[in-house]
Design brief:
The protein has helices at 9-23, 37-52, 62-66, 73-90, 94-114. The chain is mostly helical. The chain is globular, with a radius of gyration of 14 Å.
Length: 115
């Protein structure tokens, strides 16, 4: 059975919820322990919605939000591997590929600027 593409904000919500469930069990879970996920996840969803859907906007500085974290190179690999595997488990199509490509760019840029 073919997996659907990411076509709506509801799909982004499913992706982000499932992704964070994985992160909270991963080797980088300590970076998320202090977060109030009830308030954090809608912000993350807003960012990814703005990536795919022109009628959504994201006005926060992504880099600034992460400057204080003691991130290591391996953290980005874990984050990216979990993001891609979550996408691949639930979705397939052009928007899914767009998010994978965008996430790779974000991981590269953040790693370059924060480490």
């Amino acid at each position: 059975m073919a997996k659907p593409d990411i076509l709506s904000p509801a799909d982004i919500t499913k992706l982000i919820k499932t992704f964070y469930d994985k992160l909270l069990l991963s080797s980088i879970k300590h970076h998320f322990a202090h977060l109030d996920l009830e308030h954090h996840l809608p912000r993350i969803e807003s960012f990814w919605n703005a990536t795919l859907f022109p009628d959504h906007a994201y006005a926060q500085n992504l880099m600034e939000k992460h400057m204080h974290l003691p991130l290591q190179k391996e953290d980005f690999k874990v984050w990216l591997d979990n993001f891609w595997s979550t996408i691949d488990e639930h979705f397939s199509g052009p928007n899914a590929e767009t998010l994978k490509n965008r996430s790779a760019s974000i991981a590269y840029i953040m790693q370059k600027n924060l480490i």
